[in-house]
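4.2 Preliminary Data

To establish feasibility before requesting continued support, the project team ran the inverse folding procedure on a target of 175 residues. The structure was first converted into the token representation described in Section 3, and no sequence information of any kind was made available to the design step. The complete token record follows.
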């Protein structure tokens, strides 16, 4: 006899009358009885009901202060920074999704040409414009980067870290 057979679904009219709570509990009861790997659930063992939370991701997200050393098309070369001392190891940090030089990241752009790591020429139909990142990425700028991204960053050269873009950088048309 499985644990599901020992713990019947809650029906309307029983002690739990709130439909949302009843539905939530019934969903937890229906979870696979394989334990925490199956996600949130309820287990019944020796007459004791125990609940388990969702499993933690393999890598917990971590935010790190960094300083920029070099700017590339889709990523930044950085070192860690604690406000006083720079780290020795160069880490590659993916630029925010909409600041990468990848045509498929943009719905309305029909052509994209890299002019420099912070300047692109874009075409929207017959109209061509030159866009520049503003605020520009500068040597020694401080950024906040995050690691532990489920599925990675999408940038092969910088798979582990991504710029959180706390400075609000964006493309702006050059005048």
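Position-by-position output of the design step:
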């Amino acid at each position: 006899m499985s644990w599901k057979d020992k713990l019947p679904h809650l029906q309307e009219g029983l002690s739990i009358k709130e439909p949302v709570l009843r539905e939530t509990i019934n969903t937890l009861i229906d979870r696979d009885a394989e334990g925490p790997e199956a996600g949130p659930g309820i287990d019944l063992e020796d007459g004791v009901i125990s609940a388990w939370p969702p499993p933690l991701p393999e890598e917990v997200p971590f935010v790190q202060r960094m300083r920029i050393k070099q700017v590339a098309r889709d990523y930044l070369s950085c070192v860690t920074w604690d406000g006083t001392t720079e780290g020795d190891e160069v880490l590659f940090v993916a630029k925010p999704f909409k600041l990468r030089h990848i045509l498929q990241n943009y719905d309305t752009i029909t052509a994209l040409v890299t002019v420099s790591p912070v300047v692109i020429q874009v075409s929207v139909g017959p109209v061509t414009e030159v866009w520049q990142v503003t605020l520009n990425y500068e040597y020694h700028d401080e950024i906040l980067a995050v690691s532990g991204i489920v599925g990675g960053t999408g940038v092969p050269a910088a798979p582990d870290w991504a710029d959180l873009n706390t400075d609000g950088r964006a493309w702006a048309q050059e005048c």
